[in-house]
Hints:
The chain is elongated, with a radius of gyration of 23 Å. The chain has helices at residues 2-23, 34-50, 60-72, 76-88, 90-115, 125-129, and strands at residues 133-135, 143-145, 153-159, 171-181, 190-200, 205-212, 216-223, 230-241, 249-260, 262-264, 267-268. By secondary structure, the protein is α+β, with helices and mostly antiparallel strands. A hairpin with a 4-residue loop joins strand 5 (190-200) and strand 6 (205-212). It is 35% helix and 29% strand. Strands 1, 2, 4, 7 and 9 form a five-stranded antiparallel beta sheet that branches. The protein has a four-stranded antiparallel beta sheet with strand order 3-8-5-6, with no helix packed on it. The chain has six helices and eleven strands.
Amino acid sequence: MVVTMYRAIRFLVFFVLLVFVACEVKRPENVLSPERMEAFLYDYHLVQSMSGEFSASTNKEKLFYDYVFRKHGITKEQFDTSMVWYNRFPKHIQRIYARLEERLDKEVLSLDNARGTLDEGVSIEVAYLASDTAELWTSSKVRLLSPTPFCNRVMFSFETPDDTTFLPGDSIQFSFHARFISAGADSVGQRLRADVVLDYADGSYAGAGLDVTGNGKYMLSVVRNMASKLKSMSGFVYYADDDSTLASKVVVSGLSLRRFRVNEPGKTLKRD
């Protein structure tokens, strides 16, 4: 009796596994393997994180993207086709980004061990030294955000010094790339909210904000007013969705916070 039951259980387990394997979706030949997608996306997002360093008047950004495609031996059409397929079966792309997140975490940890405490947020000392353009962002430029608490935002906040670091008329620009990873349901609503706020000593403030619902590059720009004393500066990118499974995510890359100096009222110095 026991032996018969044991054999029946073994057969049932074997049958369930067979059905599970049979139901696995076969990846088309023109779709990149998970290993190739992971390797490519790592370099692809690194280029996105570097894009803030490229001048709009040059083609360096295009050259870097072209290099990534050549390095991995794929075309843009192959990549686009693969992304369409992976987004139809989100558990596969979620696994890829989970491994990418682990890889980035390990690299951040290695940097931390190599030079002590890793700088977090921004460094305003750079703005004091730079005459026209200063990159203030010092943290990781690539973040994988999910709707779970403590993993759904990128934030910065700092007190501004009472010196020539931030002058009246200076422009503050906060920019990033967004790439949404859907959970597969068309009804899932995904949204990023980004804001930058300048607080003044007299209680007034100036700010800029936007809602992001599609992939692309976004920028917020705020100009310090000419009259009030600047007290502090803050900003964030916040991710929310209505996916009850908490499976949807968004990659925020190319994070950049820049201060542009003016040499004449109403005229911004040209970038390098």
